[in-house]
Amino acid sequence: MADPMYRQIADELRQKIESGELRRGAQLPTEIDLREQYGASRNTVRDALRLLITRGLVETRPGQGTFVSERISPLVTTLSNPDTGGSGEVGVYEAEALQVREASAGPVRVEIQEAADSVARELQVKSGATVVSRHQQRFVDGTPWSLQTSFYPMGLVAQGATNLLQATSIDSGTMAYLDEALDVKQAGWRDTLTVRAPNENESLFFKIPSDGRVAVIEVVRTAFDQHGGPVRTTVTVYPADRNQFVFASGDIPPVVDEGGS
Amino acid sequence: MADPMYRQIADELRQKIESGELRRGAQLPTEIDLREQYGASRNTVRDALRLLITRGLVETRPGQGTFVSERISPLVTTLSNPDTGGSGEVGVYEAEALQVREASAGPVRVEIQEAADSVARELQVKSGATVVSRHQQRFVDGTPWSLQTSFYPMGLVAQGATNLLQATSIDSGTMAYLDEALDVKQAGWRDTLTVRAPNENESLFFKIPSDGRVAVIEVVRTAFDQHGGPVRTTVTVYPADRNQFVFASGDIPPVVDEGGS
DNA sequence: CCGTATTTGTTCGTATGTATT
DNA sequence: CAATACATACGAACAAATACG
Q1: Are the beta carbons of A211 and B44 closer than 8 angstroms?
Q2: Which residues, 6+ apart, have CB-to-CB distance to B1 below 8 Å?
Q3: How far is CA B110 from CA B128, B145, B151, B200, in A?
Q4: What residue has its CA nearest to the C1' of C10?
Q5: B2: Cβ–Cβ under 8 A, 6 or more apart, which residues?
Q6: Which among A252-256, B72-76, B211-215 has the top mean pLDDT?
Q7: Which of A52-66, A81-95, A175-189, A218-232 has the weakest average pLDDT?
Q8: Which chain B residues contact residue A50 at CB under 8 A?
Q9: What is the spatial distance between Cα A16 and Cα A9, in angstroms, rounded to a whole number?
Q10: Are strands A75-78 and A243-250 parallel, antiparallel or unpaired?
Q11: A253 in B contact zone (CB under 8 Å)
Q12: Angstrom distance (rounded) from CA A70 to CA A37
C-alpha cells in the first residue's frame, strides 16, 4: 500500500504516454471514463491528471478533453555571449530551432510608466521614476511563445532618442539606434532567470492553467553601456513546460541534431 | 464574479504575507480556521494553499501546519563567462551570496555506469558506453541546495586520468587535473537549463512535495576541450522555488545590494 | 513509551458553473 | 439549443504525521 491511488493512476498513464501507447496529441479518456477504468472517484482522477499536467505530459482543454502534450523537443533559446558563436543581434533572444519554426511577433505597445520596484532596481533609478516600456507578444508556429517588455529610462528620450516612443518594431536595432543617436554602446549585459507561477495575463496568453501548475520562466536582461550605466532592462516570460535555455561560453562546437526519442 | 474563490483566498493570504502581516516562518491558520474565516469548504481552502505552495510562498508540514516559507532572497547562482567577471573557477557553480551563507557538500560518490541517453548525447558517446559519474549533495546554511553529478568518458581514465575514480573532492580542480594529466584544456562550455518536476530522490532530498507542485531546475553543463570534444557533462538540479540564475556577459558593473522588501 | 489531540493528506460522492462542439 | 468535458465548490470520512502530556 505504498503510493496513494492518484499517483498510481498518474504513473500508469505516464507509462502509456512514454511507451507510445498514447501518442502526442492524442486524447486521453475523459475523466468519467478514467473514473470507471481505475475504480476511483473523479476527484482522484483529477489529482492524477494534475500531476501529469505539472510534469508537462498532458494538457486539459475545457469542453474538449485531456490531451497528450505535443511539446517534445522544447524550444531552445540561446542567451549566449556574442563573442562566442556568431549570434549576430545583441540583446535579442533568439529561438535556435533545430526544427523549422516560424517566429512572428505582435505589434509593439509603447507606454510611459512609473518604474516598478524591480524595474527601478535594474535601471538604477528611483522607484516610480518615469520609464518607457515597449511590450510585445511573440509566437512560434502560431502558438504563444513569449511575452517581452523592455524598459528604458526616460532620460534617454530627453537626450534625443525619441524613436523609443515610436510603436514600430525597432527592437532588433534599438541598441544600434541608441549608439547612433546618443553614442550609447552596449558594453555588456546580465541575465537573471527566475522560475515562478504565471500571473493572469500570462496564463491567458500562454493558455496554461491559472492555478500555477505550470510555471513560467522570467528572464531579465539588463544591458549596460560603456560607462557601466544600465541602458535597458528587458523582461521576457516563457512557459516553463516547453522551453529550454542554453548559455554558451568560449569555444565550442556547433550543436548536432538529436532526433528526439 | 471574476476570480474563483480559491484564488481570491490565495490572493488575500498572499497579500498578508507580502505586507508582512504574516511573517516568514509564521504559521498560517489551520485549514479548519481558514475554512471558517472565508466561509469556504476545506477543499477550497486547500486549493488556495496549493497555489501559494506552487508560488513558493508557504509550505505545509503534515501534522504541524502551514507556514510562510523562509526562503526569501533566492540563492543566486552565477553561470558567467569567466572572461567577464573575475569568477575564478571554471566549471564550478558558484553561489554568489549577497548575504553570508555557508556552503558545504556531502561526500563524492564515484560510480562506473553505462551512459544514459541524455548523457551519451552530451558526451557524444554511444548510448550505454561506460562513463565515470561523480555525484555530490550540496548544502547552503545546512539546507539542501543542489544535487550534482558529473560524467566523464571512461576513455579519460584509460588515458591516465585515474584520479577521476577517487572519491575525494577534486571537483574544483578536475579540469586543471585533466590539463595536467592529459593536456586536456577546457576551451568552452554549454549550459542547458530545463525546468521540470522533481523525481522521488529530488523531492526527498530538497524536502519539496512529490506531486510536482514545486519544479526543479536542471542545469546541464558540458565542457569541451581545445579540440571541440566533450570532456565532461555536469548535471546539477536545484529546487526552483528558491533559486535564481545569473549569466553575465561583457563589461558590466558589480551587483549592488538590494535589500529585500 | 503510550495514547490522545491536532493538523495535513487522500478519497469519496455530489452539485453546479463554464467552455466547446 | 443540447450534449460533452473540464472547472469549481461543498461536505464527509478516514489515514498518516506530528506534538504533547
Answers
A1: no
A2: none
A3: 17, 20, 10, 21
A4: A4
A5: none
A6: B211-215
A7: A81-95
A8: 211
A9: 11
A10: parallel
A11: yes
A12: 25
Q: Which residue has the cell 558526451?
A: B123
Q: Which of B76, B81, B241 sits opposite A249 (nearest CB)?
A: B81
For A20, counting Cβ atoms within 10 Å of its Cβ (0-12 exposed, 13-18 middle, 19+ buried), the class is exposed
**Amino acid found at A181:** A
Report how far residue B5's alpha carbon sits from residue B48's, in angstroms, rounded to the nearest whole number: 8
Q: Please check whether strand C approaches the CB of A27 to within 7 Å.
A: no
Grid cell for residue B214: 514545486
Asked if B74's CB is within 8 angstroms of A194's CB, the reply is yes
**Per the structure block, which three cell numbers stand in for A145?**
511563445
Q: Which three cell numbers stand for residue A117?
A: 520596484
| pTM recorded for the entire structure | 0.81
Q: CB of B238 under 7 A from strand D?
A: no
Under a CB-based contact definition with an 8 Å cutoff, are residues A202 and A216 in contact? yes
Q: Provide the residue type at A170 as one letter.
A: I
Q: Mark the nucleotides of strand D covered by protein, meaning any atom under 7 Å from a CB.
A: 3-13, 16-19
Q: How many CB atoms lie within 10 A of CB B63?
A: 5
To the nearest 10°, report the CA torsion of A194, A198, A202, A208.
Answer: 120
pLDDT of residue B93: 43
- Whether CB of B37 is under 7 Å from strand D: the answer is no
Chain A residues 142-201 within an 8 A CB cutoff of chain B: 186-197
Which three three-digit cell numbers place residue B107? 561526500
Amino acid at B36: E
Query: Which residue among A215, A252, A253 places its CB closest to the CB of B215?
Result: A215
